[in-house]
Write a structure and sequence with these properties.
Elements (H helix, E strand, L loop, with lengths): L1 H12 L6 E7 L3 H11 L4 E6 L6 H6 L5 E3 L5 H11 L4 E4 L9
Parallel strand pairs: 1-2, 1-4, 2-3
Length: 103
């Protein structure tokens, strides 16, 4: 029994943890972005794709990540796909700027 327990422990300690990114698209979301990104800061990476906001959206995003990209608005699907392409983790969680991940 001891050998089985030791092998189980060795296998468990050698398992690689999957990584996850949060991908957010934004445009003039200064009222929503801070609580949105705050709820996602536990993730391994945050990616923000902004459509040239004219408010403080970019400043807020910079306090959470350096993976910020600006590009013209091409629709939700296109922006979210672009954001996913910028992620470098195993999994990508898409979050809208006005959404929060519950604690």
């Amino acid at each position: 029994m001891k050998n089985q327990n030791r092998r189980a422990h060795e296998n468990a300690s050698s398992v690689r943890r999957e990584t996850v990114s949060c991908a957010v698209v934004s445009f003039n979301e200064e009222k929503n972005l801070d609580p949105c990104l705050e709820s996602a800061k536990w993730m391994d990476e945050i990616v923000v794709v902004d459509s040239f906001s004219t408010d403080r959206t970019m400043d807020i995003a910079k306090t959470f990540t350096d993976k910020i990209y600006q590009r013209p608005w091409r629709g939700f699907g296109d922006q979210k796909n672009y954001a996913m392409d910028q992620a470098t983790t195993d999994w990508v969680f898409i979050l809208d700027s006005d959404e929060r991940i519950p604690a």
